[in-house]
Amino acid sequence: MKFWGGYKFLVGVLAAAESLLGMLRSVNAPETTIWGTLTLAASVLLAIDGLTELFPHVRPWIVVALAAVIPIAISILSGDWPPNLWMFAVAIGFVEWVFLELKRTTGRTEIGVLACCTLLAISLANTTFMLFRMYWNEPEFWPLGQIFRFMLPIALPWTLILILLWHSAREVAARGPDGPEEVVLATKAVDD
Fold it and tell me: pTM of whole model > 0.90?
């Protein structure tokens, strides 16, 4: 499980960095589109889920507080203090608490990761669509080398996110309401 914790942390950090860079490079103000904010939130939650797997003995309230503090730390480091920052921080902390409660009550440990990866995949699909639209609107086709340079930054995030999306969907689908052990015992009892 340590591998997947590190993988989630890595994907979350990379997605958060790319989301922040995308918001800084955007010609639109960050307030005009919700994608940057949602991607940043999903990335932070994914990285925190990875940390909880790497350090399983950390108390849940510390994890929730960390989720709420990270957006504030990002704002302090960037020098930008959006007016709704406190609401965003509280919302991320609340969603982290919901994910922890869902893990505890349903036994599906990857349910939050599945939600975050789905959101990241939707956001990445939106970005990919806009990039391809930009490519097809060019007056002439690009040479093959330029196409590969264009596709590499798109293929890497898709690969990382789709692997994690597949892993989390498989884990959520494989677990019964009480975990895999109880499902096996219940099916053996029915067979007997």
Answer: no
